[in-house]
Amino acid sequence: MSTTKKLKQLIQQKQILLAPGVYDGLSARLAEQAGFKALYATGGGIARGAGFPDLGLLSSDEVAAQLRQIVEVTSIPIIADADTGYGNVLNVQRTFYKLEKIGIAGAHIEDQSFPKRCGHLDNKSLISTEEMQEKLKAARDVLTDDNFVLIARTDAIGVEGFAAAMDRAEAYVEAGADVLFIEAPQSVEQVREIAQRIKAPKLINMFFGGKTPMVPLEDLQSWGYSIMIVPSDLQRAAIFAMQQTLEAIKRDGNSQSVIDKMITFNEREKIVDTEKYLSLSDKFK
Question: In angstroms, rounded to a whole number, what is the distance separating the alpha carbons of residues 27 and 262?
Answer without folding.
Answer: 15
